[in-house]
Write a structure and sequence with these properties.
Helix content is about 75%, strand content about 0%. With about 80 residues, the protein is mainly alpha-helical. It has one domain. The longest helix has 16 residues, at about 15-30. The mean pLDDT is about 90.
Length: about 80
């Protein structure tokens, strides 16, 4: 790791957790603005294309947020038993 990056990393790691979270969010936000920085593999693109095509063919085929939350609540209750 270059000295500057090593120094910055050590400095950031000394920050309180909420500030480290803000730094991480700022870094992720900056990366998200560079769409070609992490290009998709052919396999990932094929999966996304298939999901988009499925959604376009049946836009109401998913579940609502309320249905998802209900399912998650049921799973959580079962896991506690």
């Amino acid at each position: 790791m270059p000295k500057t990056l090593e120094r910055i990393t050590k400095e950031v790691l000394t920050l309180p957790a909420p500030e480290r979270i803000r730094v991480a969010q700022a870094i992720l936000e900056s990366i998200s603005k560079e769409p070609n920085y992490t290009p998709l593999t052919g396999h990932q693109k094929a999966i996304l294309d298939a999901r988009i095509a499925e959604d376009e063919a049946n836009p109401y085929g998913g579940i609502t947020l309320e249905q998802l939350e209900g399912s998650l609540a049921t799973v959580r209750k079962s896991a506690k038993k």
